Amino acid sequence: MGTMLWYDEWSAWSARLSAALDTLQLYARSGGIQETLGASNALLVPEFKELFSLLGDFNTRFGTHLPPGAGLALSRFFFAQTQSKRFLPEGNAIGLQGALLLGGLLSGVRSQVTYFLSDKQTRARRMVDRAFTHLQRSLAADKAVFGARWLAAFQGPRAEEACEKLGAVHLLQFGIWAFKAEAAGGKTDLILGERVNEEEAMRSADAMVLTEWKMVRAKDDPVTRAHEALEQAEKYTLETLAGFELSSYRYLVLVSEDYLAPIPPIPQGGRTYEVCNIAVTPSTPAPAAVAAVRRSGGGSAAP
Questions:
Q1: Cα–Cα distance measured from residue 35 to residue 12, given in angstroms and rounded to the nearest whole number
Q2: Helix H segments across the chain?
């Protein structure tokens, strides 16, 4: 059985904790009637101790890749619990009161870690959006130099690779390390064309994102090209780097001469694929976009 992606594992652990907390709440509301049967000692206390063990396993495998705040929260939590021994077999957490204590401690550390993971993902999305917006506006503002470089890449014999390289360098200026999926399911460096050096990426950037780039010529259907890019992106099967790699959003980049009709995001496998258009010789944005929408009838990203 394959290893789950880190965010799936965190979600699974969190869901199991929520179920245990729901049961704990039910017991607490009953006024302790179930305690006559030792329900807390038989079910809840062992479950919270098992969740503690699973969280320790998660921390061992992914802790070094978590955002500093999340990693620090887990480190402090495990240090405190090692000292108190509450979750250990010899711990003195028993009965309903003990279950309330253990459940509260796990709930608290979950809230801290989730906050830092969510915050990192949100900021990473803003950074990616800012980088693509800056790229497109630079093409509109500096056609003589910046635009000419992109146009030459777009018209060249290996246009896709050339545009990938220019795009990756541009995103890196904004702290984003962009990569694409390789045939074997790993990460390919857009600039060097080899496997991504993850240590270098983590030293150099603030976030990492999967991108797939496609050229859209005059006779091409943009929606078809977007789905071709999606098929390639779906080959990526490695675990994401917790807290560093943008896990819920991926980007399909369509490079064209002028603006394309907007294509809505494509949900796939619990993730969202944003479709980003880069026009290398953009006309006035609003009229071009309106005309493109009229020509396509609005477009659709549905398969």
A1: 28
A2: 6-29, 39, 45-62, 68-84, 95-141, 148-155, 159-172, 198-204, 222-233, 285-296
Which residues contact residue 116 at a Cβ distance below 8 angstroms, ignoring those fewer than 6 apart?
66, 67, 68, 69, 70, 73, 243
Higher pLDDT, 141 or 115: 141
Which residues, in sequence order, are CB contacts of 197 under 8 Å at separation 6+?
A: 189
The CA angle 18-19-23, to the nearest 5 degrees, is 115
pLDDT band at 45 (very low <50, low <70, confident <90, very high): confident
pLDDT tens column, 197-250: 988 998 889 889 999 999 999 999 999 999 999 999 999 877 666 667 888 899
Exposure string of 50-63, with b = 16+ CB inside 10 Å and e = fewer, is: ebbeebbebbeebb
Question: 């108190």: which residue's tokens?
Answer: 84
| DSSP state for residue 63 in the 8-state scheme | G
| Rounded Cα–Cα distance for residues 188 and 236 (Å) | 10
